[in-house]
Amino acid sequence: MRTDKGTIETGPSLLGGVSLPAAAVFEPALAHNLAWMQAFADAHGARLAPHGKTTMTPALFKRQLETGAWGITLATAPQCRAAFAHGVTRLLMANQLIGEPNMAIIAELIEQGAEVYCVVDSAANVEHLGRYFAARGLRLNVLIELGVAGGRCGCRDLEQVLTLAARIHDQSALVLAGLEGYEGVVKADDGEPAAAIRAYAWHMVEAARALEHADLIKAETALITASGSAWYDLIAEVFHEASLGARFVPVLRPGCYVVHDHGIYREAQLGMLKRQPTIKQGLWPALEVFAQVQSLPEPGLAVVAMGKRDIGADQLPEPLRRYREGGHAEQTLSVAGWEIVKLMDQHAFVRLPAAAVGNGGDEVRIGDIIAFGASHPCLTFDKWRRVCRVDAALTVLEEMPTCF
Q: What is the enclosing helix (H) or strand (E) of 119?
């Protein structure tokens, strides 16, 4: 087995035989998360199209599809091409398809048998797509994006949605296949984000009904799709309550759920569990980065050989556990009071409590291995060309290539 950061033997332990730092996904938590989110979507009458940009890991795409996912969401045409090359045939590109080189990628995928959806929010983009795909003799499924004022992309109101739908209707190469949105950009003026998210979801439902009433949907079965990894419960709840009938199929697109995290999504889940008291167990963090103490240059400071090139840094990583190099998974040492105070490209500055120094068998040593939790897994996966899948004993079960 190889990683881009070193060579390892077959089935080694992360505590001996793996070149560190290394990113690891724990199989027990991974299996739990896959089943948990699929069951959640099923219970709400929704299809699941996990956002693949989180991991860009084909082995995880395969697991998601095998667990019941309807398709995989991507953000760019090259990401769609990479996913298709690894067996994903239904691709939801939750982004505008802009530029003829990108259109060429999607056209080639359709010619090879892919089912592709992209989003539109302007007449200019609709006309360009219509001309290009007509010239290729192909038809492209498009979803109108409904945005919010001050947010990201998307039509700003119902009138714009209906006007754009009429423009799509005039393009023989485009098939209006539904409505797309993203609630993560919704702002709450009154400090009540959950209410604002629900209101946005109902606005999407209103727009979907208006499109159907105007007979502007060309697809036999249309999609209504939203949901990132923080507010998926509210989106699913509203779409389920709306009972849009057989014509519209709700599609949820969380991506980070597959490994969850030790930061922003851990906090988001606390909110979800409070909103949904009938849900007794949520997602489990599955992704950790293992790295070694490389220097103890002064009292109270450890420098760990891990930095922004190895782990996400939108929040500073959290020390979880410590081991001796060559030790066993059950032989953990304390990291109580340890705190990363600074992260450079390939160095983490860790403030140590007094108890970590001169404490006999528990004393921190050069070469000690630390497991770190990260916030926002998207920004950790993209640091790695290969990620280790490990069991609870820290044995490497598989090396999973990424395709960033």
A: strand 115-120
Say if 317 falls within a structural domain.
Answer: yes
Q: Which of 32, 66, 64, 35 is nearest to 51 (CA)?
A: 64
Instruction: Give the Cα separation of 377 and 266 in Å (integer).
Output: 11
User: How many domains are there within the chain?
Assistant: 2
Q: Residue 68: inside a domain, yes or no? A: no
Residue 323 has a CB neighbour count (10 Å cut-off) of: 23
CATH code of the domain in which 340 resides: 2.40.37.20
With residue 83 as reference, give the H or E element that holds it. helix 77-85
Indicate if the pLDDT at residue 6 is higher than 90. Answer: no
Average confidence (pLDDT) over 15-41 = 98
Comparing C-alpha atoms, which of 52, 94, 48 is closest to residue 232?
A: 48
Range of the domain at 347: 2-24+283-401
Domain identity same for 105 and 245? yes
The C-alpha atoms of residue 15 and residue 115 are separated, in whole angstroms, by 43
Instruction: Tell me the average pLDDT across 154-174.
Output: 98
Question: pLDDT tier at 7 (50, 70, 90 boundaries)?
Answer: very low
161-174 exposure pattern, b = at least 16 Cβ within 10 A, e = fewer: bbebbebbbebebb
pLDDT at 1: 45
Count the residues in the chain.
404
Q: Collect all residues with Cβ–Cβ distance below 8 Å to 192 and sequence separation of at least 6.
A: none
Answer whether residue 145 shows pLDDT above 60.
Answer: yes
- pTM for this structure? 0.95
Q: What is the CATH number of the domain that holds 148?
A: 3.20.20.10
- Tell whether 375 is covered by a domain: yes
Q: What is the pLDDT of residue 4?
A: 54
pLDDT higher than threshold 50 for residue 369: yes
- 248 and 374 in a single domain? The answer is no
Question: What's the rounded mean pLDDT across residues 377-383?
Answer: 97
In a domain, residue 76? The reply is no
Burial class (CB in 10 A: 0-12, 13-18, 19+), 64: buried
